[in-house]
Design a protein that fits this description.
heterotrimer, A alpha/beta (about 130), B alpha/beta (about 110), C alpha/beta (about 140), A: alpha/beta, Hypothetical Protein Ychn, Chain: A, five-stranded parallel sheet, 5 helices, globular, B: about 110 residues, 4 helices
Amino acid sequence: MNTLCIVESAYRATLEEQDDTILWLVRAMRGAGAQLSLLLRGNAVNYLTPGHDCSSLSIAGQKLGHPPVLDADVRAVAAHGVPVYVVREDLAERGLAPSGFASGIIAVSRAEVPALFERHERIWHW
Amino acid sequence: MTHFVFVESRDPYESADCHTLQELAAGLAARGHRVTFFLVQNAVLPARAGSRFSSQLTGLASHGVQVMADDFALRERAIAECARGVSAASFDDLTRLIMEPDTRALWH
Amino acid sequence: MSTEKTLTLAIMDAPYESAASTTALRLVDAALRAGHHVNVFAYEGAVALTMRAQKAHANPVKGTSLEEEHHPTTKDWVSALFRLAAERGVKLDWVNCGLCVDERGAGEWVDGPRRGGPKDFFEMAERSTATFVIPTR
């Protein structure tokens, strides 16, 4: 059964978790054999921007062992066979270009999202 | 004259009342107060030059509000260039501002 | 060397749920390094930031071991902030709201924090140079 996972909330506890917990969950479920697609909308489209860097975080001298590199994490999701869709208008609203993505990452317009919904038996909006 | 420091954590993409806080900040500046608008977390997203709401921040700065964005949050979100009127700043700067005499700081 | 100024913070967010927890700890860190005394009133979910039972874990998705992942726990960050305060000769007073602790079963915490209540927060605020509330949504 094909499931569309929608991620909208961005940077929520990603420093403490050293991951976006839903990107992590998608990869874990994919590793267990799930058929998944990922749709990035809202602020989560910013995850596609190259150059994420939170390595300077230090609290009382304690630094992150594995600072999350969220743009790399999205590419990894795609590289593990999960089609990644991103809403074109949400990119534009954030001053981001809707092109130049890694293989497996596809920009869709808001008008195309209904068709995406129709192609998936389950839709989970995280 | 009181210094008002607004620490804005919400962004206009997800929160409908961000503009209300900006209006409040501009209103206080118009009354002669010193006002700082410090963006943290996802509130830095509209600070990216060319984003849909960047002009609101530029406009806020033109009304005499000092608009600053957490430099760590900018790097965390790969924002290389801020809109005109927005300057990157550190939490050391924020701490210094909050601890100044006759300052009222609030988080949104 | 202390500036003899004090910052009081009220925080509400549970760990691992929002960006506000880390932001608050960064602010405590910055204030301590600037030589200020800091009071923290942990209210509602924030009382879980100091839970002794927090454990780091490996990351099977990214293939890192427990040691390699070095997953941060907020209790370790809080403990480090207490050490930082001691090194800088300033005071960190961390109060966990007692009723919030009780209803969440969060009563086992690392060394440093103490149990208290709203009266503590108000008294801390009265004695502080600045008071800053970081609310939850």
